[in-house]
């Protein structure tokens, strides 16, 4: 029996719209904000929460790690597949992963929403639930501290995540050294597989999933879940830093493309072992949106949660990444070039 | 002679599109990012700039002030009136004002751009120039430390600003006390006047301004400039805090609405003097987007740049704001309710 909740949203979708669920265009900004804020309690780093011109967040290391990433309807998601809860979860997760990839602990999220007037208030409520639950599950102590709301013809969720290095140096992409182990924590290619299942089985403009779970096998259901509600290993970012990671980044555009970026930044070649890339090496190399953590470590023991997938070798001209010694060509995706491409 | 540059963009708009100015949809994300980054040098607070998963920004006070605000084409601006430079400047300025309103010094901006495919690369370059110049002019030392880029049917600029309290407590909206002076630094109603001039004289879908400066009188040109490229008194936020401000906020939705918010948060009534509101008191009360700083101070000397506009009195039921003793009704705008309303 396939677990139905793994395929679609764990957050129940109302079958009928309650009478008190107005369109966003019909209610005041204040009511929308209250709907969000009642669902997103302060985190332990919030010194001053929402309600003023700006929030104040603790920065114990006297520095703050900051990143921003946006989900836009069309290039980044389809409304037929992603409910509000899914979108809140994913928008949080992808930003938390960027903080973790620096070796930092996430402390706060700021959320800028641009919402079409004809969306329901319950959609925004579900978004807020998704943000809260993703923080609680992936980065306890982190919370939504501020936001902004505007109307737009296109649904857009721009999130900024903040984090603290806990006194450590930031782990950049440029520190990989010859002889280091290359290791990964998290999924490889599963989110991209989930997207391909969605495109193949459910027309993007068609019926919202969950539809009939009987049509999905278990691997497909898991893959769809990885696409809609990714679970990157946020807590392992600081662990990797403590274990002496020399370089780290999150894999958002596929292992081939992102390992190439790390190799270029470090002036080395990353030599991957095909046998370590799982049952579907091409998916692992080309598939984006898993938000796994790719890191290099001095040879020896790896931190818990990381598995060895290759090693760092001296730079091979025109071959930033190899797989079993063969250069890996341009795989992965450039979200700009491929935006909206149904073929991906 | 009207100063032409004050009405339209100070940044020259190309009359013809150069051959090497491709559409955004035709170039790689990397090229767009390089176009931006070559125009936005690191600031003094940037410990690690763009190019990694996240930036690292100094937070000397061991806390960080953070806010986010978005400009969306349609509700927030018209492409016919605002060039890329104007939009970059304004998106920076409105966020810097929220940091200043807490009594903090801005340290960094993160910029999430969602850009239609048919926009030119030069548009994004002008945006970056606007961000840089606004930081340099309004908050020296602050810089763009990170960003995100995606394609979207709707142009959207979501900015997060960070700031440092320099060891002081944050100035909230809730600290106004009976007997305090109410003071303001910056413009009152000029940006809204500029918007009304634009709506009246230049159809939003029509010819881009600058058109014929001869049709504008000097006050109108200044008002349009205040709307397109506001110059809020960012540096006076920390000054107000040093001078003992008891409450502070930025006036983005008009003095009546925002003073009412401060009054509600503080449990007082703000009693304004009409004579202190300039030649157009209604504009001052109702007009948004000036991003002036509204602050309360213990009675006595005001800091440089602030002028007295009223006093804090005990709460009058149902009258958070009065003007010459008369309750001020609901004025100002709710950007949600009024989005796209040409009548504003």
List the helices and strands and how they pair.
2 copies of one chain form a homodimer.
Chain A: H1 4-7, H2 29-37, E1 46-48, E2 55-58, E3 63-72, H3 84-100, E4 105-115, H4 121-138, E5 143-151, E6 156-164, E7 181-185, H5 190-201, H6 218-228, H7 236-242, E8 247-251, H8 255-266, E9 268-272, H9 281-286, E10 292-297, E11 307-314, E12 321-323, E13 326-327, H10 335-338
Parallel strand pairs in A: 4-5, 9-12
Antiparallel strand pairs in A: 1-2, 3-6, 4-6, 7-10, 7-11, 8-10, 9-11, 12-13
Task: Quickly list its features.
344 residues, seven-stranded mixed β-sheet, homodimer, alpha+beta, Phosphoribosyl-aminoimidazole Synthetase, Chain A, domain 2, four-stranded mixed β-sheet, globular, 60s Ribosomal Protein L30, Chain: A, 13 strands, disordered N terminus
């Amino acid at each position: 029996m396939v677990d139905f909740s793994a395929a679609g949203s764990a957050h129940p979708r109302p079958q009928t719209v309650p009478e008190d669920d107005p369109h966003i265009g019909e209610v005041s900004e204040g009511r929308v904000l209250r709907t969000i804020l009642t669902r997103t309690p302060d985190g332990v780093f919030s010194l001053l929460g929402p309600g003023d011109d700006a929030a104040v967040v603790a920065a114990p290391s006297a520095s703050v790690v900051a990143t921003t990433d946006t989900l836009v309807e069309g290039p980044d998601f389809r409304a037929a597949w992603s409910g509000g809860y899914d979108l809140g979860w994913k928008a949080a997760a992808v930003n938390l992963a960027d903080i973790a990839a620096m070796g930092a602990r996430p402390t706060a999220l700021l959320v800028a929403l641009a919402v079409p007037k004809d969306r329901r208030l319950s959609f925004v409520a579900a978004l807020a639930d998704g943000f809260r639950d993703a923080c609680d599950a992936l980065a306890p102590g982190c919370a939504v501290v501020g936001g902004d709301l505007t109307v737009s013809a296109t649904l857009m969720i721009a999130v900024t995540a903040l984090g603290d290095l806990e006194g450590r140096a930031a782990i950049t992409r440029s520190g990989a050294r010859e002889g280091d182990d290359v290791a990964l924590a998290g999924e490889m290619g599963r989110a991209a597989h989930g997207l391909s299942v969605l495109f193949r089985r459910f027309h993007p403009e068609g019926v919202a999933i969950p539809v009939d779970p009987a049509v999905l096998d278990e691997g497909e259901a898991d893959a769809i879940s990885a696409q809609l509600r990714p679970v990157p290993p946020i807590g392992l970012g600081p662990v990797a830093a403590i274990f002496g990671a020399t370089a780290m980044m999150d894999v958002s555009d596929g292992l081939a493309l992102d390992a190439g970026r790390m190799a270029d930044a470090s002036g080395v070649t990353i030599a991957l072992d095909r046998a370590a890339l799982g049952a579907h090496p091409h998916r692992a190399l080309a598939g984006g949106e898993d938000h796994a953590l790719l890191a290099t470590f001095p040879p020896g023991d790896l931190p818990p949660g990381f598995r060895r997938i290759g090693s760092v070798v001296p730079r091979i001209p025109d071959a930033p990444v190899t797989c079993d010694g063969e250069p890996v060509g341009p795989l992965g995706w450039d979200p700009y070039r491929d935006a909206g491409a149904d073929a991906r």
